[in-house]
Specification:
Elements lengths: L2 E10 L2 E11 L15 H9 L6 E6 L5 E4 L18 H14 L4 E4 L8 H6 L1
Parallel strand pairs: 4-5
Antiparallel strand pairs: 1-2, 1-3
Length: about 120
């Protein structure tokens, strides 16, 4: 088991965005979280990553495994020998994804990874 999410719930100012979410991932498994805007997809990922705290439930991640994250926004990119501000959104996404893949994570969390990508990059991904 790489990741186990059990009975996770989260609300903001009285609005429940996650309720009793449960799933687990094993080595080599892939999963997609699909839903409309505002349905809690990013909140779920942020809880898994420890960026936000769930109101209820538990998250267990294997200590022997390495996790990495491609966020919707890439403010964490330190561009080397390039003026980061001149890169397009797709270039920023590809650059960050390249950096992440070089680290060879066991669990790769992608939050809307196709935003700003061209058709060829989307097909590759």
């Amino acid at each position: 088991m790489i990741l186990n999410v059990s009975m996770l719930s989260k609300a903001y100012v009285g609005k429940t965005v996650l309720k009793d979410v449960s799933f687990h991932l094993e080595d080599k498994e892939k999963a997609a979280i699909v839903g409309i805007n505002g349905s809690g997809k990013t909140t779920l990922l942020r809880c898994i990553l420890g960026i936000e705290e769930a109101d209820e439930g538990s998250i267990a991640f294997s200590k022997e495994k390495k996790m990495d994250y491609l966020a919707q926004q890439h403010a964490d990119i330190e561009a080397e020998n390039e003026d980061y501000d001149t890169l397009s959104g797709g270039q920023k996404t590809r650059k960050r994804l390249e950096e992440i893949l070089q680290e060879k994570p066991d669990l790769l969390i992608l939050d809307e990874p196709t935003n700003h990508l061209d058709i060829g990059s989307i097909q590759w991904l």
